[in-house]
Specification:
Elements (H helix, E strand, L loop, with lengths): L1 H23 L6 H5 L23 H5 L14 H12 L2 H5 L6 H28 L4 H21 L23 H23 L6 H14 L3 H22 L12 H25 L4
Helix pairs in contact: 1-4, 1-6, 4-6, 6-7, 6-11, 7-9, 8-9, 8-10, 9-11, 10-11
GO biological process, one term: signal peptide processing
Family: Belongs to the peptidase A24 family.
Subcellular location: Cell membrane
Length: about 290
């Protein structure tokens, strides 16, 4: 009963740390240097050095009514949103529970996906602010993808039901039963798809960061899941971009980061991939 609450509170604290990294990060300094930077947290508007009371996740934002205590400038909503998201990420093991999976494999998978989702938060916030995805985050995701493949291959727990977020629908798209071939193919396919779009649009639609991100996403999700990760990313990106244009929040000349859309596409497949396909095939009368 108490473990989920402890995990959530710990996740809030991790989210606060992620906020520090994402807001302090600059292309001139790598992520490790950013994380180890010794300076105290300050208000980004007036430079006021924050006390411990102003650094409590969620509570400080609420008690200060979303404003700096010194200059009263509104604080970014990124602070509580990232903290809450991180808190819920640490509850992932509850969602991933499966009595058919050995305990050791379950613990490793939970640790990997928690780490992946935390990196997704950093990608989202940094790409949104700076229009770039740090190579360090790409490398970390790649390492996690290879770890997940290796552990899955060793356990023998791989098949259409266990190895895909779309369940047995994976067989319709040429599911490969060898985990290394399956996920390797997905990494290549993801990179090729993004690369072709970059060539066609001459870099106006996407950047090299998106191309590099497609590789670890392929390693993590495998084939054919990567197809749906990209498809949902494009669909969500198109809907949001059209909405921004309709409400005159952006113009055709504005640069829009695609990293957050790749993250949203990944989350859609992770949580709802199988359900969406089930409803899709049922709607068209396929059982």
């Amino acid at each position: 009963m108490y473990l989920p609450a402890l995990l959530f509170v710990f996740g809030l604290s991790v989210g606060s740390f992620l906020n520090v990294i994402s807001l302090r990060y600059s292309p001139e300094r790598n992520l490790l240097a950013t994380a180890n930077h010794p300076s105290r947290s300050r208000c980004l508007s007036c430079g006021h050095e924050l006390s411990w009371l102003e650094l409590i996740p969620i509570f400080s934002f609420l008690i200060q009514r979303g404003r700096c205590r010194q200059c009263q400038v509104p604080l970014a909503w990124q602070y509580p949103l990232v903290e809450l998201a991180s808190g819920f990420i640490f509850l992932l093991p509850i969602y991933l529970q499966n009595p058919l999976i050995p305990t050791a494999l379950f613990l490793i998978q939970s640790a990997v996906w928690i780490s992946v989702f935390l990196i997704f938060l950093l990608i989202w916030t940094i790409d949104f602010r700076l229009l770039l995805i740090p190579d360090g985050l790409i490398l970390a995701l790649t390492a996690l993808g290879l770890l997940l493949i290796g552990v899955t291959a060793t356990s023998g727990q791989f098949g259409e039901w266990q190895g895909s977020f779309i369940g047995n629908f994976a067989a319709l798209f040429g599911f490969r039963s060898n985990v290394w071939i399956n996920h390797g193919l997905a990494a290549v396919a993801g990179a090729l798809a993004i690369g072709i779009i970059i060539l066609i649009t001459r870099g106006r639609g996407m950047g090299m960061g998106d191309l590099k991100l497609a590789v670890p996403l392929g390693l993590l999700f495998g084939w054919p899941d990567i197809i749906f990760v990209l498809a949902f990313s494009f669909l969500i990106g198109a809907i949001i971009s059209l909405a921004l244009l309709a409400f005159k929040k952006s113009t055709m000349k504005d640069m829009v980061p695609f990293g957050p859309f790749l993250v949203m596409g990944s989350l859609t497949v992770f949580f709802f991939g199988k359900v969406i396909l089930e409803n899709y095939f049922n709607f068209f009368g396929f059982k």
